[in-house]
Design a protein that fits this description.
alpha/beta, 16 strands, binds zinc ion
């Protein structure tokens, strides 16, 4: 069941009779108005768990929310990437103990509806329905967080892994890797990844994990191009190069790539991804588009090129998180180079400013909530 935020209670911690039930949380008060405030520590109902957040981060989607480009309710606590320990367990949740360290994905599917049972967990209950934290219910940029459908969403963190090693798995890594999975990247494939922001960089890692031989990344920012090489790209091209598509063709014996990943959500990157594709290739799209997206007919071979276009929203749920945790635990992936900055929760608005303005070569910001 989806719970809507109960704003008046949240803003008045004393309604619970004690200040001890109050926590600090980042509240969205309206476009460009976010503030750390006191809120009530939630209480778990049936099937729910309350977690104490230890580390979280800020997502590009949070920036859209703060700027008023993606509407959410005023008074909502935002954020959707919690690393945490279990604080209180509601009835009907088994196999967990208070104090267990858990990772919860940005997407919290119910595990029971038709979409979930069909394998489309992100669409739980309806369009984009799996995205609840910091969207439809209170989110992770707070000291405590209520997890709905807890049985389907709490993945235990192996003791040897630090919060920093796993925090990016909740969203950007799950999303970025999924582009390579949905694109069906095969051993020896050539893959082009358009844009090397945090999600695009994770898509580059995903292509490497899936066994791509040639990974061509495309990015306008020199620092991000440099990181891209570290994360697995063998050829790094400047997004502003007018001969970009020709260069990709040259790098692939004139054929184009097997899989082109779009990780920005713009007409130009979508189009360049399509123009870079081999006949029979797959365009795997992660971007969130606004306005109108058009398909040029020549690179689409007028619809006769055996192309596939696939889209993916961040896969979530505890089994997805368990698999990603395994990749880190077994040393297949290290995403810590993407955590370029660190702030305590108290100073999260400074972190928003830095992340939003992309200053100081920021990629992802770790927000320390509790030790
Ligand atoms: Zn996100
Ligand atoms: Zn569901």
């Amino acid at each position: 069941m989806v719970q809507s935020p109960t704003l008046p209670d949240l803003r008045n911690p004393r309604t619970n009779g004690s200040r001890a039930a109050a926590m600090k949380a980042l509240i969205f008060e309206g476009p460009n108005q976010i503030r750390i405030q006191e809120a009530l520590i939630p209480t778990p109902g049936y099937g729910e768990v309350v977690i104490q957040v230890t580390l979280t981060t800020i997502c590009g989607t949070d920036l859209h929310i703060v700027r008023g480009e993606y509407p959410v309710k005023r008074g909502l606590i935002i954020g959707h990437e919690p690393v945490c320990r279990i604080h209180q367990i509601g009835p009907g949740v088994t196999g967990y103990e208070i104090g267990d360290r858990v990772l919860v994905g940005a997407i919290t599917p119910c595990g029971q509806c038709g979409f979930c049972l069909d394998g489309h967990l992100s669409q739980c209950g309806g369009p984009i329905g799996g995205w609840r934290f910091g969207n439809k219910i209170n989110g992770a940029q707070a000291e405590y967080l209520l997890v709905p459908h807890a049985q389907a969403n709490l993945a235990k963190i192996p003791a040897r892994l630090s919060d920093e090693q796993v925090v990016l798995l909740a969203d950007v890594a799950s999303t970025g890797f999924s582009a390579a999975e949905s694109g069906g990247v095969r051993l020896g494939d050539s893959v082009a990844v358009f844009a090397q922001g945090p999600i695009g960089l994770c898509a580059t890692v995903g292509a490497r994990l899936r066994g791509a031989a040639k990974i061509i990344s495309i990015e306008g920012d020199p620092f991000r191009r440099e990181i891209s090489k570290r994360m697995g790209a063998n050829i790094v091209l400047d997004a502003n190069d007018p001969a970009l598509v020709a260069d990709i063709k040259t790098a692939t014996e004139g054929q184009g790539v097997d899989v082109a990943i779009e990780a920005l959500g713009q007409q130009v990157t979508f189009e360049n991804a399509l123009r870079s594709l081999k006949l029979g290739g797959t365009l795997s799209s992660l971007g969130v588009y606004s306005g109108k997206l058009t398909i040029p007919l020549d690179p689409f071979a007028a619809g006769l090129g055996d192309h596939k276009i696939v889209t993916t929203l961040c896969p979530g749920g505890k089994e997805r998180m368990r698999r990603l945790l395994e990749l880190v635990a077994e040393g297949r992936v290290d995403l810590t180079p993407l955590l370029t900055h660190r702030f305590p929760l108290d100073r999260i608005t400074e972190a928003y400013e830095l992340f939003g303005n992309r200053t100081d070569n920021v990629l992802k910001v770790a927000i320390e909530v509790a030790k």
